[in-house]
Amino acid sequence: MNNTIYDTIVIGAGQAGLAAGYHLQQAGLRFVILEASDEPVGSWPHYHDNLALNSPARYSSLPGLPFPGDPNRYPVRDEVTAYLRHYATHFKLPVITKAKVLNIEQTGKLFRVLVAGRGCYLARTIVAATGFFHHPNIPILPGRDQYRGRVLHTAAYHTPEPFHGQRVVIVGGANGAVHIGMELAQVANVTLSTQRPIRYLPQNLLGQDIHFWLRLTGLDNRQWLGEKSMLVYDSGEVKAKIAAGRPDQKALFQSFTPDGVMWSDGHREKVDAVIFGTGYRPHLPYLAGLGALDETERVLHQRGVSTTVPGLYYVGLIRQRSVASTTLRGAGVDAQVVVKHLRRYALAQQASGGRSITHKAHAWAIRSSEWAGLITMMRLALKEQHNTSPRLVGEALVRSAVVSAGFLGLGSATRLYSTFESGNW
Questions:
Q1: What is the number of other CB atoms lying within 10 angstroms of the CB of residue 1?
Q2: Rounded Cα gap, residues 87 and 65, in angstroms
Q3: Within its chain, how far is the Cα of 264 from the centroid?
Q4: How far is the C-alpha of 177 from the C-alpha of 180, rounded, in Å?
Q5: Do 5-134+280-360 and 144-276 show the same overall fold?
Q6: How confident is the model at residue 11 (pLDDT cuts 50, 70, 90)?
Q7: pTM to 2 decimals?
Q8: What is the number of alpha carbons within 13 Å of residue 291 lying toward its C-beta?
Q9: CATH 3.40.50.2300 is right for the domain spanning 144-276
Q10: Residue 334 backbone phi and psi in degrees, to 5
């Protein structure tokens, strides 16, 4: 057993864990990062070969170290992997590799972390940063057990070559599924099968990448999309290729058949492979004994702070604080907020002699910073109206108010983008 008592133990050394490590280091806290694999690069080496970021390099850095090279390019998988490896080395972060966490329990005022083959570690606080990309979600659709073709998740997809000349159906309409569909359509007959129409967000707007505007308005650090809402970044090529049928798009099929699928109109079609681009499910089994998860294994938290276990924090959960929470550009901001909470908790715990400290914040106070989004989004909407499609100022204010209402929990901001993508602006 390691007798050192750390201020914090971070679980996971991917982008979320490294960002947390940076801010813990800046705060002068004593910590260690436990990583199950043999290097601090997270899930990046396991993604498909031709994966590229949706955001330019200038907006895709972890805190303290800009992404190298042309800031306007879109880095690919291996570049991100190399960047993360260099990041851990550059800041000399205390990462222990091949250290898989099996269980965490509380003993007095400390957390006791059991690590496979290494015994136990003790800490005053925990940051769970194992990300959201370890437990692929494959829905159980009717007839799947009888289907004789190949079924896989996009997590297991790497290159298009194994599907050459085949009939492939991809379930899902988010960025990952759509871009794999476009790649596969070069060598196979591909259909994107989605529950709802694909919704597009322009990759470039008024001569700037969309991430310039997301940062300028503060939207990149806000939660302005519904939990199940997904947008596909598009410079025009994606929408055009789907319209041309390369790949095509259909509503979600009704069921599997032994050799294919049955579409909603009753038509049966032979299909060689079905690929699910349906996201991931929470999988943090080492927290099960703490009461940190609900009955469906979803994390109980508010913006990365556990609502049931004082001293437990998260970085890297999907939409933890914003739409960017699971990205390189979002990890640093979320980690900074979490470490501030963590440091205050640790100081309060010490001052109280180790008694449990809980904090209750009013909802209006938690969301107060988002009032700024109302003003900035109205300004952007007015600028868009003036530059691209002049109409009544009143209409611009109404449409931007939809987004503002979403900020304040009064409605869904996504309606603004549904009208934008349909060309009804």
A1: 10
A2: 7
A3: 31
A4: 5
A5: yes
A6: very high
A7: 0.78
A8: 6
A9: no
A10: -65, -40
